[in-house]
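To assess whether the prediction recovers the assembly geometry, we first specified each molecular entity separately, as shown.
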Amino acid sequence: MGIIYVLGILIIGALAAFFVDDLNRKWTGPVAMLAGFGAAAAFAFLPGGIVRWRILGFSMHWETDALAGFFAWIVLGLSALALMYSVKYMEGKARQGYFYASFLTSVAGMFGVAVSKDLLSFFIFWEIMTWTSFLLAIYNAYYGVETKGIKYIIFSAIGAYAMLTAIVLALGQYHSLEFSDLMAAGAFRFSSGNWYIPVLLLLGFAVKAAVLPLHVWAPAVYPKTPMSFTAVFSGAMSKMGILGMLLILTGIFRSATGWELTLVRWVLGWLGGLTAAWATLQAIRQNDAKDLLAWSSVAQLGYIVTAVSTGTRLGLMAALYLALLHAAFKGSLFMVAGAVEKQAGTTDFRRISGLIKRMPWTFLTALIAIISLAGIPPLGGFVGKWLLYESLISETHAYFLVILIFFASTSAFLYSYRFLFGLFLGQEEEEAKQITEVSWWMLIPMLALSAVSVVTGMYPGLIFRPAARALESIGLPAGQWDMSILSNVWGNQTDVFTVGSTVGILFVLWALFITFKGKKNTRWLTTKEISTSGEIPAPEDNCTFQRGFFQPFERAVGRLYRSSMDQLWEDIGAALEAFFGFIRKIYTGNAQTYAMYVIIFVVLLILFRNYIF
Amino acid sequence: MVVSPVHLIAAPLAAAFLIPLLNKLYRDAARVVPGVVFLYNLSVSWILVNRVFRSGPIVEVIAGWKPPFGINLVMTPFSAVLVMLVSFMAFVIWLYGFRFKRSLKGGVVMYYEILQMMMAAGSLGIILTGDLFNMFVFVEITGITAIALTAFYRDRDGAEAGFKYMLLGSMASVFLLLGILLIYTQTGSLNMAQIAERMPAVATGVKVTALIFLLISLGTEAEMFPLNGWAPDAYSQAPSPTSAAFAAVLGVAAIYALARVGFTLYDHGTVSGFLIAMGFLTMLFAEMAAITQTNLKRMLAYSSMGQMGLAMIAFGIGSEAALFGALFLIINHAIIKSLLFMTGSYFIYNLNDKRLRALNGIHKRLPYVSFLFALGALAIVGFPPFSGFWSKFYILTAAGAKQMMPLIIGILAVTVIEMTYYLRVIGRIYFAKEESEPASHKPSIQALVAMTSLAVLIIVLGLYPDLIAGFLHRASMFLLDKQTYIQTVLHLS
Amino acid sequence: MSETKDIRIITRPTKEQIRQAQIDFAPRCTAAGRVNDKETQKMVQYILNFARKHSLFLLAYGTGCGAIEIPATLTSRYDAERLGIRGAATPRQADVLMITGYLSTKTLKRVIRVYEQMQDPKYVVAFGSCTINGGMYFDSYNTIKALDRYIPVDVYIAGCMPRPEAVLKGFAKLQELIQNGNAGNGECYRKNLDWYRANQQKVIKNWDFPDEYNW
Amino acid sequence: MTGNWLIELTGIVLTALLAFTVGMFYGGLRRKVIARAQNRVGPPVYQNFLDLLKLQGKTTNVTHGLMTHLAPVWVLVAAITALLFIPVLHGGLWFPNFTFKGDLIFLLYLMVMGSLGMALGVGETGNPNGAIGVSRGLSLITGYEIPFVLSLVAIMIQFHTTSLTDLMHYQQATGHWIARENPFAFLAALFSVLGMFHYSPFDIIGAPAELASGPMSEFGGKYLGSLMTGGSIFAFVKLVLITDLFLGGAGHPDAYTGAAGVLLGLVELVIKTFLLYMIPVSIGIVMPRFRTEQAVRFFWRWPLLFGALGIIWAVFWK
Amino acid sequence: MTTQDIIRALNETFELKAEVLHGNQIRVSMHKKQVAPVLLYLKNQWGFIHLDHVSCVDWIEENVFELVYIVYRPQDQLTVLVKTKIHREHPEMENMEGFWPHMRTYQREIREMFGIEFPGFEAPREFILEGWEEIPPMRRDFDTRGYVKRTYTTRPGREDAWSVREYITRRTGEKLPDFARKYSRD
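The predicted structure of the complete assembly is given in tokenized form:
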């Protein structure tokens, strides 16, 4: 019954937040936070159990097996922290009741998706999570309502309705919507005659996971949503698409070989790789931290999609591991962006720089998260990258795909650095002097999420074990996992604990050396006192290099940057609108015309009556 | 007192005729009497619905003439559900319109209420009657009152809308009469059960011609493409409660008549393809027109047409699940679209501006009404967990059972369009920059009660659709079961 | 105009007078930082000085015509790199600040800034007559006449312009000074900062240096 | 792992010292070679040691903040850590350190750590030249890493291992260098080495005349000294890595053991790495500088093609 | 389009006295009010699209500044020197920064070095000098030597250098004219 409690707590919390806001705005946030932590606690301490009920003749089946538990923890953990962060982040903003109610409902939807064991309840929760997130996505968007938010909902709708089509077709064919029944009946196999069912379902999931041609909503919407929700949006909600893919592809993965698996690996894997590469290239040219993070999210999801598509032991582990870790580090990064936005008023690189002295803890969070994102060894992100590469090289033999992924991940250094540099490094703006560190209410969630990266960098087994159980629960290859030794199918190993401790010890030693050698004679200057050409920068001058930061790289990439998927979709949208406008003219508003229609219709019917009736 | 289906029609009719007299006695009688009558109707229909579902269809004979010779009223489970719906909606709309009516002068209120009640009576008559010519009469009653209500404001636009409606409505009447005539010449009967019994013997050519005439006329009422030119103007020019009533009362009756003709008089197979095709076209063109609208009420009107198209598709599919979905959709449409018209009218009432652009940021001034509008919009698009989802899902399921993939994709594609414009409006209401002045008219208590009850229904039916699922299943099964209908009506004893 | 008449009587000072005047001209510190009393550290100092003298990172501040002699000195023909002299791009890395020619007051400001940004031990090699006594700009309203009034100079290389051979000779002298612990006046500059600042401020009209001396 | 921590520690220290010494001498040799090529006498070979001593002997230092302060530490730690995971000589001849505990993909990522840490420190100084240098450097990484990864992937799939020690064992056992077994991969790796060393024509990062030595422009004294140390060790790391991967590594435990074996192995290692090192150096002598986009595009053309050929070769290799 | 044509045109249009200085150089003097029209005329009608230089001479004896605008025609390497004289008290010249973009540079220099004002010219006042408080240094009544003595410390041993001019006059036997003596640096 834990599921019911969790859902109940979230829904009641949503209602409570909605109504408390009218009574006393101060309490809205804490109430919602309590609900978030309450739900997490309920999920942790109450047995999950199985819930079944019938509605309109359809059976609903919710169950917390290991897989559901894994994703539910991503959702609930991240949401609880994000809600805690929201308390101060949303302080002084309007419509908090609305915000928290939508937030909690959305969390309930995500949790429901995670625990659903049949397609119908999966879809229902999916839709709940979609429209609540839409309401949040347009929360800030005074100008983007008609374009950006709508873009999101249109793409979501296309995805959701692709799913719905598949669901009704599957229902008509197999008379059940239970995942287990459908799996047993082979409904999710491409070879099953109903090949369009898995294809349509995957299309639906691909939208949420922002896979390449359908990704345009994510960069449009993530930056516009309040950052505390974007953390969940990008960290948890997009993972639901991954969960869906995993569930759908299980049957194919279990069969181990065959052309279907090859197809999945080729199509999905390359889509993921292209998504990663394209989004990375786009992230590099962004000038706003939030835009950058949004594109980066798309890129990271591309890795995860590729990892899922392998369907092998290392690859699936990489998918689950990255799913959790991405939630952790991207969640904290969006929180960092929110913190900077709150304190400095903007996240535009061209307008702020040098916040490191003002917001050291925020910088620490960002540093850890970015290192993890870039996959630099001693932190957790590296493990995910390692698994992905080893899987692609040694298990699925996707040699050129791995190069594409590697290109994306190498280019990711560029935007990783840009994020840190743009916000925190460089010369300090004179007017930024009064910026202060954010409150601990916001710092604690950020640091807690960063801690995940640090801990998993040494002990990835902490994630491997539940993830392996999750994979086993749906019958996928999981294998044995050590606490800190990674090994591939060829038996080659990497001991991340040794790496972490070596790096740590050496780092401390050298840091001590460089600090205490000539400590007396070392002077710490401000960033204004730079050496170039002897000129003294005036206090109001800011020499930080922020505009066109990666211009050489952009020039090297060249023509690729001129094409825009977004523009393509917008053109299609505009063409459709024009077409609708043309069609609308059928209703001329003229009575004679309408009468003419009637006559013509009658005549046509009578003329072709033999064909029609 | 023994209640019978006759009361349902007679009470509002009688009240409509009595109102002028009563108004002489008591100045506000015109305001109060309809409520009493509708309440009475509601209770009667409740009793009758229970009776129908407990002990089978009721066949009420008028003036002692037994079927097939006299005029008779038949209350099957299918019509019972719709009767219940219409009665309820009529009452809710009256409740909502209370405030609206106060703004009118005494005499005008009287006319308004008379027309409203006659429309309700006519609609109930269409649903209840077992006689084809009688149906024509009721269609005429409804049509005339609806035209009068469309032109109620007596301004230029209203008159134009009324004229369009009258033109198309009278053409529909002519075709209806022609169809009835043709059928009568062939079967020698006006009783629907008897016609249904004798229909197989009729020559195909004549049968099809009659069917075409019937479909044209009823299709006009049911807003079928391309016969629905009247609808946008009528919806947008009529007084606000009337717009709601068009969706909740008139539309229900029209679609019922269409279903009755398709399923009882003719074989379902005959009209299946036609209904699906025309339903889809209706839906497609309506939604495409709706997305380009700049006027709130016109947008809602086009959306109504879209919903009717979906109902036609469902009737066209014709399986039990599809009929269930269709019935559910009709109920949902009546409830949700009424809610949308009611809330939308409040916006317009406050802004004196029907344009969508004027809605920017109105939620600050009418928070509750905006909330209800948003709820209705989300529900009608079919987001779970609101009731709109289930009807759409059921219809799609029915289509899926027949593996009609193109149809499913088509419906869903059109739904994307629908979703787009509804969510745009929500976006405007909540998030766009405010442009207009503060509100002067808060909703009245009665209107709030009416709207809230509809909203509660939306949520309750969404979360627990099994509440009415039993009724709907029985009703849809009965509609499919033509023989039982014939036997029940003809062999009454 | 009255004093102009007095100057017409030309008196040449003796060499002794000139030397005395030069000694009084600018403060000279003993290279305090580099002479250690402790016997054990002398070896260390010797080694360090050896490294210092053979590794001179040169920041050539090309102010005047002398800038053209630097490439000649550094490239193949005269190959200063064999003495461990190589160019440095920024003052943070440099050991030797080389002022090649006249210094306008506007440039002086930058030079002082650059000098202050260099790390101890740091050496200044002034290059050409202009830095010594103004050279041909002796009566210009906008160039300084003696560099060591503003920053401490270790080695002057006379000439207009000195040839690369002379430059190398100057560097050899500098190396000798370094090995003996007599070069590198950063400490001295810091100690006599008030005196230097007063001189600098006299020349640089729009004084906008930070109050504190930044390394 | 021998189990005795004292021996392990000695091994780590000795390896680091070896790398440091050889790396520093290579730097000096490079300067000497360039000088000779330009018909100069050039500095002595030990010039880099003098430079380092002088830099460490600076009596004052400045830094701009914690990240700047720690930037050399990142570089050093990355270099030494990478060194510890790379076998210096063939098995048994030299201390194994952690060579069995990390594979090639790990090394690949570890080698970026130093640059990124350095970049962070550079960013904090607020010097625009430094930031421009970082921008160029990161762009260049995207250039040369791709062919390098292609060649690594090629030999990984050719020999079904991602472990460096395994590859060395293979070369030792068969006597065939991987440079012979997969010449295309070797070629691609060589191109990447050109980029990795940042010598001409890829010296866009620290281009002294354009950027005032770019990322280094705010570092002096002990910081510059530490960076120099790290850079020297790192140069050795790169050379040994390529030697181990493609040129058969060094040392012959079957032929010689004991001190003589070690000595011979080291000599072999030095010869191989020096010859390898001379490739970027001698190209650097004669080449002018690319612009950044030209450099990146260069790597995306021919080296990429060779890498792809290497993979195809590996796939069809029997 | 020859030199003579230009001279004739200038003479006729503006009633000036233009003359050939050298083979391809024309000199023309005028009132300062005429400078702008003449320059525009030369630029637009005769194709003198390039401004070579603007120079200023301090004729302190005549109490005037002479401004020379040198414009140049690239087709036939023809140069026109447009000369004007303005009074030394409150010297003002028309602001012509719109004619050629680099006119700004010359105007800034002249304003800083001679103190000639250009009404409406909004470029920053400080150009080459920083924090200059004396009279503009290129004016001949600026006591350069006094200033140097006041400001800079000279190294002892070059006292003789101060009298170089004196030496020269003595050696050549020339006499300094009175006006020159008056403003001489000695």
